[in-house]
Protein 1
Amino acid sequence: MIKNITCVTCPMGCSVNVEISETGEIISITGNTCKRGDLYARNEVTHPKRSLATTVRVEGGVYNVVPCKSSEDLPKEKIFDCMQAINSARVNAPVKLGDILVADVCGTGVNIIATNHCPAK
Ligand code: SF4
């Protein structure tokens, strides 16, 4: 089986073909222009990850929510659970840029951190 993946590591957006055996092993990777594309395609087939950017509710702040992002990419299969955990989280103002809003979200070892500040009312 050949799986076609667009590498999103840089704006070139190379079209990478990953040949996979019936047992799920990678036989070959072609179409990538550099080694980063090989690594991206390999991870995408074996253990896809995604970054997450959203908001967390703030209590007692001048804003109701503060923007946030994952400190590292999260396993793709855990994105839905992580979104639910983040949606149910509440933090108290003030929030500073870089504050950890949800630590070790869903046991992934990844923190959800504030990407802006929110002063208290
Ligand atoms: S393979 Fe290399 S050059 Fe092509 S999109 Fe990926 S990182 Fe960019």
Note: The domain at 53-114 is CATH 3.10.530.10 (CPE0013-like fold).
Protein 2
Amino acid sequence: MDLTRKQLREMQTLLEELKVSLSDLLAKTEVGSQPVKLKDNAGRLSRMDEMHNQSILIANRTVIKNRLIQVGLAQQRIEDGSYGYCTRCDEPIAMLRLQASPEAPRCIQCQSLTEVDA
Ligand SMILES: [Zn+2]
């Protein structure tokens, strides 16, 4: 099934919105990812907590950055007309999947196959 012009426009809008909100999220978490500052009165445990929270934040930022890259690639695929087809098996990606994650480069079957080394 080919995507209709209307569906493509819908995906373009979704991708653009996703790009804006992901960039926004990155900007908002910028300050939090600075190196941990030692507080005079901070005990050993709370410092560990802080470092732990920070490592989660950095991991999330990595996820967000990777997603932004995927969004950009999806926008390129819209440009060159290959959008909506799995980059691995060339089968159409289910519309429901695209609506849930418009940047998805692979169909659900291929995604589950490649999840381990993604
Ligand atoms: Zn596939």
Note: Residues 5-84 form one domain.
